[in-house]
Each structure stands twice: as structure tokens, then as C-alpha cells.
Write the C-alpha cells for this entry.
Amino acid sequence: MTAPGEAARPKPARRPTIKDIARRAGVSESAVSFALNDRPGVSQDTRARVRRVAEELGWQANSAARALSGERAGALGLVLARPAQTLGVESFFLQLVSGIQEVLSARKIALLFQVVEDLGTECALYRRWWAERRVDGVLVVDPRTEDPRPQLLTALGLPAVVIGGPAAPAAVAPHPDAAAPAAPPPDAAAQPPLATVWADDAKAMARILDHLYGLGHRRIVHVAGLPGLAHTERRIRSLRTEAALRGLDARHVRSVTTDYSDAEGAEATRRLLDAARPPTAIIYDNDVMAVAGTAVAAGRGIPVPAALSIVAWDDSALCRVTHPRLTALVRDTPGFGRLAAQELLAVLDGGPHRTVQGELPHLEARESTGPCPHD
Amino acid sequence: MTAPGEAARPKPARRPTIKDIARRAGVSESAVSFALNDRPGVSQDTRARVRRVAEELGWQANSAARALSGERAGALGLVLARPAQTLGVESFFLQLVSGIQEVLSARKIALLFQVVEDLGTECALYRRWWAERRVDGVLVVDPRTEDPRPQLLTALGLPAVVIGGPAAPAAVAPHPDAAAPAAPPPDAAAQPPLATVWADDAKAMARILDHLYGLGHRRIVHVAGLPGLAHTERRIRSLRTEAALRGLDARHVRSVTTDYSDAEGAEATRRLLDAARPPTAIIYDNDVMAVAGTAVAAGRGIPVPAALSIVAWDDSALCRVTHPRLTALVRDTPGFGRLAAQELLAVLDGGPHRTVQGELPHLEARESTGPCPHD
DNA sequence: TCCTCGGACTTAACCGCATTAGTGCGCTCA
DNA sequence: TGAGCGCACTAATGCGGTTAAGTCCGAGGA
């Protein structure tokens, strides 16, 4: 009656429990529990013996049982809300996840990773995870200016760390360089106090502008990503501020927004190059658009960097396979993930909701940026 | 005594349990369990009432409790063994994961996704997940010719589906077109009978060769990926078979292996173009190498496709941002993920270990392939 | 009329671990 | 000398479900 291929299925080996350990070590189950969890109540001798037996048996705590009694699921969640099409050309997320897991796996904490279509589904998923007690906390990515998630998570009491927030870091920790009185946006105070790790986009933008300004560029356009995202707005604001600091004309140094796709990146580039006075330098908010923009320039016979300089915000293999190779802003993304994971663990351990800052990115100058051409 | 930012932390709302439902519905806890799990033993009336109350309370089963008693973790695992550097330029994985989750989330099954450095760590992780009963099964990616994972998983009794295996589909389901007596490799029989979803790389390769052969190309090199991977070997074998079928010279139609990186893809391309009789067409095993190869050609002033045709195995935004846009083999990767997830669920439900085949990819002809130049 | 049968529930046991409340024992000290 | 104490350990309970084993009751058959 068994289907082909089913016949040989072996009976799964029974996994050892603390009861097995208790029997072999000649103690009670609770003594085993004490011994294995570093709690007082057992002698050094017994503790060592129990540990040895557990080792021999290859015992690992049943995560469900531990979760049920210990009130900890031993898992964290990360949801990525992205339409399926736009998925995966960026290296950012896998690297972030990789960094996060480096921290988690050392503490035997699992990561539930889920890709969903939109923000609504993401919120529904948080509710479900919360109700099912699947996770002890979540890492929130792609914070937005109008974001329902912090409020939801606060209401649920689900510990969280926002990666890439807050919308206005200046309001939390005033940027020493930001002499210009950049008024904190009205929603800054309204944000529930979730723990946050953030990157100093203002300083990063300053570095890019230093580089381009130093090369003589005065007409610089920033091809940004999705307008709703917090870091997009932050970068746009930073560009304005930094341009003003250098006395640059706001009509020639400005941002345009896209959906991060190669198609919109290319389209934006075409429009920019069609203008009466096209920019001499373009900053793209991700690697994919930068490559697409470079291809557009190549298609029109516009030499890079002789006639147009290009900078990619975020490095990846892509930036090295184009011709010429792209000058890019290099971030330690796995490091950022590690930082976020550590913060979340700290919150779970009862720590305060802090706002910590990731390492500053640096600009890797390659062949796509050069001196500004003379008109 | 509370740290700043901690003061406002709300007491988490208590999540409802079946006990709450039982009280409100005026029945016992087990009646609730029966009602909510579609088991006989309660009247239609009671069932409806219990359901309504559960709905009102927003009840969701505590996954830990269910796992503990029901022997099902309600989660599956997927491990990606990749060195951190090579992470994330391919769109394949996120799309695969997205497809998998489409199937899983409908059944409220979570996915544990983990990125590790190597195969040894991956195996250790399977052991841990098994011992901790974290997952009910796993999806195995990147099968290799010498792969310790199937044996381990079989020994553990951890249900699994291999994505992209087996090494020799011909041995399982003879390819009708494969008239050439391609001897099944020795390890084919040694493979434990894990469930498998696979793509017909032989047919895909045939399509690519049809295209290139039809354009007159007779010197074709396949820049393959990592030599240890099953699908790499399969594609290499397919190229040989298909070349022989068309009477092509094995010295001019051959494969070289790389590590999938842009660097090795570019390096391989340089070597090929340096040869006395360089190929007139190159097939790259992923999009990143194809783009890198195109850049090398551009750097040497070799026009594509006038002097060199290029095909990418796997499509992505990358193939559309180069100049010219790359002819690519388009696969329905999310669909492949859905298929794999369905197979694993079938196995968990006691089904047989089948070997099912994914949809055939098609070749999207773009501007990077053209008629073979005359020598 | 009595007994049986089965549907609709309830009770109780259990999953594997953490944790709290004992228990027995040797030692100290009034 | 016996109350008091601390230590090492055991017994018992609970987490929130599932499930096997009753219990109750009304309908149907002999």
C-alpha cells in the first residue's frame, strides 16, 4: 500500500529528553534542568555529570517545550514587504540577514524571515506572529515617514528594533555639523519610542558632495528611491542642507524620486540628460539604478566620467562589472545587521530602547567620477 | 529605576487561550479544540458559537503549545550556504523564497531562513533544528554531486525536498530526447530517495543551442558556475550531449567552471577572448557573470552581438540594464519555489517521495545574440 | 419497559521543559 | 541537645494545546 519511494522511509529516531538524561545520570528531571541552565541547586559534581550525559545523548532543548514554559519563543522575525518583481537584485538584504544571524545563531535564536507583498500584509503577519507567540521580537526594515508599524508593535507589546530609522535622527541626537537649523519634522515626537539603529545619511551625503564638489561639479542630481521611505526623505533633506552649506544653487542640485527599479532609474536618467542644462554628476540611491543610468549614458555616447560622473549609493558586485567601474558608497551591511540584532537582544533582556548609530560608510572612488567638464 | 525610553513600555496585552474561549462559550476546553480543528464530537451549533467567540477574541493557537502536543513545529527550514561576500547579487534566492512562502503562509507555516558560511555549518544546523524540533522539514538548495545532506537528513528522519536535484535526472526519468547513451553516474543509485523538484537543464540547454546554432555559431563556450554543484555538472553534460547531437566539435563547444563571481566570470572571458580562435558565443551560468563578460568585451572594443553573442542563464534586472540588453533564459523562479513547498507539504502529509519537474524555462532573445560573424 | 447505542460533551492525562514548593540531611550554635 | 539553617536534591505544578477515556442523555429496537 505504500507508494514508491515511501517504502524505505526510516522511523525517525526518538530524540532524547531531559527524562532520558535524568535516568542515565541517576537524578531527577529538575536537577537536570538546573544543571543545564546554570541555576543553583546542584553540586559541581552532579552538574558536570549531567552535562556529560546530555552531551553524549546529543540533547538539545525542545524549542516548543521551552517556549511554552519559559515564555520565550527563541525566535525573532524579519518581514520584507516588497512586490515580487522588484525582489532580489539588491545585495543589501541578504547581507543584512547574514549579519543578523551571525549574532542570533550564537545564542541559538532562530530567525523567521518572510517576504510579503505590502505593508498591510506585513502588519497582519506581525499580529499573527504575536498571537501565535512565534517570535519574541521583530526587526523592522524600510521605515517610512508615515509608518503604521511602530504604533502597532507598541500596542502589541512586541519588542522591535527599527533598522534605518528614525525619520529625523537630528531630532534625537543633533548632528554636530548640521549648523543649518533643520527644523525637526512634526512627526518626530509622535513616533513611539522603539529602539532604532540608523546610519548617518547626512554625513554620507556630505562625503559624496565633498568628492563631487572637489571635482568641480555644480550641477548634481540625486536619483532617489521610493518617496515614502524614511531614508529617502532623509537623504533628500541632507542633499539640500549640504548643498546650501556649499552655496550651491537649489535649482541645479536637487533630488528626483523613483521606485528603485532599473526601469525608473533609466527613465529618470533619460529625462535628466534631455534637459537644457543636464547635470554633470548623478547620485543614484542604489546600485541597480546606477548601472541602469550608466547604460543609458553609454547608449547615447556620453562618456563617463568625461562628460558625466556617476555615484552609486551602496556597493555591490554590480558596481564592479560595469565599464567604467562605479564610484560607490560602501557600507558594512552585515555589521549593520549585527548591530540591529544586538540591540533587539538587549531590548529583550530588558534594556532601554536606545537609538544607536551604525558605522559611517566611506566613498570608494572608482572610474565613474572625474573632473567636471567645461561647458 | 527604569532607563530612559523604558518608562513608557506598555504591559503586553494578554493573549487569549482556548481557556478563555471555553469560558465565554460555556463549554470545555476540549470541545473548543474539537470545534476549532474540525474534528467530530461537537454539534454544528456549538462549533459555530466557538468559532465566533474565537474570532471575537482574535485567538490564534500558541504555536509552541501546538508544537509540543501535536508533534508538529509548524515551521520549515531553508539554509543557504554561501560565503558572505558572494551574497545577494543573484535574484534567484529571494524569488525562490517568495514563492515558497506564498504556499506556506496560506497554511500558517513559518519559514526559518538561515544564511551560513559552508556546508558543514549547514549540516550542524540541520542537526540542531532536528534536535530542537524547530522544523518539520527542510528545503535543500544547491545540491552537489558529492552531497552529505541527503544522507544526514535521511538518517535524522527529517523530511526534505531537494531543490534543483537530482544530479542525474536521466537516471530517474529517462529524457526522451537523450538518444545518446549518457551513462548514469555511479552515485545516482547511492542517493537516498529524497523528494526532489528539478528543472530540465538538458532541454533548456537544447533551447539555447538551437538559438545559437540557428544563428550560425559553431564555437560556443559555456562559462559554468561552481564545479561541485549538481546543476553545474548537469548543464556541462547537457552541453556535451546537445553538441554531439548537432555534430559540433567538442574542442570548440565546451564548458569552463568558475565560482559564479563577477571576477571569475570576467577572468574566464578574458582568457577565452585571448585564445587563437575565440568563441563566437558565450553562455554564462548566471546574470552577474554575463554582465561582467559583456563589460570585458566592451572594454576591448569587441561589439556585441556583431562579433560576440552572449546568453545569460537566468534573467534579472541586470540583463536589462546592460548595453545591449542580454538574451537570457527566463525561469519562473517563484513558481519553482511554490512547487518545492507543495512537495514538502505533501511529504509531511505522508505522501511519497516524488521527483517532480518544474516548468520549462524559455529563452528571451534580446540584443546580445546575433548571426555568427564570418571569420 | 429495559437495554443498547451513539452523538455531544467533559475529564484527565500528556507533550518536555521551567519553576516553586517541599524534603531529608549534616552542621552550627545557643 | 535540639532548634535553625543551608545545601542538594525531589515532587508537584503549570504553560496551552491535543487526545484518549469516560459520562450523560435521548432515541430506537427487542
The radius of gyration of chain B is 26 Å. The longest helix of chain B spans residues 230-245.
